[in-house]
Predict the 3D structure of the following.
Amino acid sequence: MPRPAHSPTHTSYLIPHTFMPSNLKVQATLLTVAILFTSNYLISKLGMKEFAPLSFAWLRVAGSALLLWGIARGERLPEGSGRRVVLFSVLAVVINQTMFLSGLAFTTVQVAAILITSIPVFALGAAIAMGHEKATATRVGGIALACAGALLVVGGEGWHGTAQSVIGAVLILINCLSYALYLVVSKPDMAHLSPRALVARMFAVGTLLMLPISAIPLWREDWAAISPRAWMALLLVILGPTVAAYLLQAWALQYADSSIVASYVYVQPVLATILGALLFDEAIRPIVLVAGVMICAGVWTAGRKM
């Protein structure tokens, strides 16, 4: 027998689509997410000067899980969604966080930001293979233009690699593939489920799954030697690049294709370069400004409604 419309369980996990935000609002949200994710490189790099990478990763996930659980309190997911939540958590939290922070510890902010631009390539390929999206000329052309801008950063700034940097780069690429798959496979669920409830459960599951991986680093951590500045870096990473960014991106994923959401990572290399200049007195080269124009134009082209 169907539940009556006023039943609280009927609407506790479904999203009413009586409101459709403007394309400008969706694009502005995705740009905000890109800025938050860019700040993650710098803040996490500072935090991991004192924390072990896996300790920092687990504390980030655990702290985010507690905060998200409070935000999504009372919101539920439908029965039978447990396996999907575990899959999303493995892709977007466990593999993503451990690989990204471990890779960032071995390489530079700029290299990590540039490698993140492989996410749209993985996402678009996966979405097309799964039949979720069509490979239109406009979409592929926009992503290609943004990719060319990111590669221009590489050519202009140069790449001074080491053996340690190569390991870091491989870990970052694994993170990119995992997160791209998450964007694609979670797209159908984001259209019908509460993003807050889903993300909260993803981080709760991730906290449990990452504990065996992080147990030894956590046990060996010299907690007394960690400064207030490092703890503040951890708090900022939890509030901004994790909780706020994941919730905003989950909201935007309801209204934008996964490849468009992923294409905003092309903004990150230029933003990381600018922030590096502001915080570490690094010089901004004219070629980076040109690349920024190309990246923004590519993101706009890929996001056009055709």
Notes: Residues 21-302 form one domain. The CA atoms of residues 73 and 91 lie 24 Å apart.
